[in-house]
Amino acid sequence: xxxxxxxxxxxxxxxAQAGLKSRSRTSLVLxxxxxxxxxxxxxxxxxxxxxxxxxxxxxxxxxxARVHAAPTPAPGPAQWPQVSAASDEYxxxxxxxxxxxxxxxxxxxxxxxxxGSWLLTPLQTETGExxxxxxxxxxxxxxxxxxxxxxxxRAKSSVTGLLRMSETGGGFLRENASAENRWYSxxxxxxxxxxxxxxxxxxxxxxxxxxxxxxxxxAPDAEKPVGGLTVIAFHNSHLVYALTWYALALxxxxxxxxxxxxxxxxxRAGAPATL
Length: 275
Prior knowledge:
The protein is α+β, with helices and mostly antiparallel strands. The protein folds into two domains: 26-70 and 232-275; 91-215, no CATH class. It contains seven helices and seven strands, in the order ααβαββββαβαβαα. It has helices at residues 4-19, 25-67, 85-88, 142-145, 188-194, 209-215, 238-270, and strands spanning 72-73, 92-99, 105-111, 114-125, 130-138, 157-165, 203-207. The two termini are 22 Å apart.
């Protein structure tokens, strides 16, 4: 009679103790290794994004300095092999020569002024080199705009603008159809080949508004192109990415702490009672 309550208490505790059974050593080791690996990976990715953020901020600062610097002569043939996006893109340059209006190409564009085209025209310098110049934006259809019989300029034009690297089709830009005279990217080599220009500079120049206005009096275009519409924008979400990776690393660490505390609770619940 005196032992009945004791047996009842022990039987009542058995389900609770069974539910708090400690995990095996193997499962704990696997959990620890997995958590440690994920923590290191997430923390490393967060740190990498911090470095990328610093790189992007440095790039933005360099480009801003180039855009607002005094113009320098556009790179000549001897410098063409060294021209690169890292060292030259968005650099303000100046050049002068004669426009070959008959070789103009209209490249589809969307700007703050609406949809239309960029007009890319070769400029033949005084020493004979050819540099493609984006004379600016026009809104009317290029087929009604460009005539292959347009006379080339006789007078010399001076251009100031931003050096830009050649674009290629694909990605967000559609593939050019040079045979059909449909252009979607400012691909310097493709344009040079389609217009029979031979060797040209490996870059083009976005003319500023003053240069396009000065050219308006002599240009044969039905609508005068508007220059100075270059949009300089850099996607910079590295800080958000870094915080996201670090947050995931902290979540893994917090989960590890919870497992350790839960395992201790299970161990205490499963330990035999002592008098």
